[in-house]
Amino acid sequence: MASIRGAAFRQRMSQLRLAFANTRAVDPKLVPLVVGVPLAVLAVCLVAGVVAGRPAAGAVFGVVLALLAGLLVFGRRTSAAALGSIAGKPGAAAAVLQSLRGWRVTPAVAYTRKQDFVHRAVGRAGVVMVGEGAPARVTALLRQERRRMARIVGDVPVHEISVGDGAGQVPLRQLQASLAKLPRRIKPDAARALDTRLQALGDSDLPVPKGPMPRAPRRR
């Protein structure tokens, strides 16, 4: 058991070192923020402890909060760097969707030969159609897929999201938050049953883009 835990710890540390190296290569602010923010938190806690007449307590809380602040900053910068590395690549939105918990994702339920895609996510908010690619073509694909879904899912809500930086679109970095804000309308069992029914209907074959499918980090 101890050897298993030791191996798991070494693997986790190796992953953290790799994430740090990859992020540092593209984010020059990583080290200053990971070091500076915890030091600032520690300093505030030390001053507060001295003012309150409890410097030891201030030091203890300062160390704990500084470590938490450092981990939070590291996690956010790592996630941002990972998203930046896949932004603009075909399948980037699908990679982000597949990193979410509580959603059943089917990539490329609709597409064009120019690699515009619509991906389907089924969860407690209902069905979410997420498009990526040229805005005009994606709008047409979303409209087409929404009509098809409306005939199948009945009263279950169907949402549309177009990923991009244009007017009315959702930036890739905000896609997770956009899905999280959707109201929950159906129960988990109903969502699973709905996804199973949609999977049974089948979708078109995916024209796989050249190269590996992008991967996004899971939310911590």
Low-pLDDT runs: 204-213
Looking at how many chains there are and whether they match, the oligomeric state comes to single chain
Distance between the termini: 26 Å
Overall 3D form: elongated
Helix content: 55-70%
Q: How is the main sheet built?
A: 4 strands, mixed
Integer count of domains = 2
Architecture blueprint of SSEs:
Layout: H1 2-26, H2 30-51, H3 55-86, H4 92-98, E1 104-111, E2 117-123, E3 126-132, H5 135-153, E4 158-163, H6 175-180, H7 188-201
Parallel strand pairs: 3-4
Antiparallel strand pairs: 1-2, 2-3
Helix pairs in contact: 1-3, 2-3
Features:
single chain, alpha+beta, 2 domains, four-stranded mixed sheet, elongated
Q: Could you characterize the architecture of this molecule?
A:
- With 220 residues, this protein is an alpha+beta fold.
- It folds into 2 domains: 2-86, no CATH class; 92-201, no CATH class.
- Helix content is 57%, strand content 13%.
- It contains 7 helices and 4 strands.
- The protein has a 4-stranded mixed beta sheet with strand order 1-2-3-4, sandwiched between helices.
- Helix 2 (30-51) packs antiparallel against helix 3.
- The longest helix is centred in the N-terminal third of the chain and has 32 residues, at 55-86.
- The protein is elongated.
- The two termini are 26 Å apart.
- The relative contact order is 0.12.
- The model is unreliable at 204-213 (pLDDT under 50).
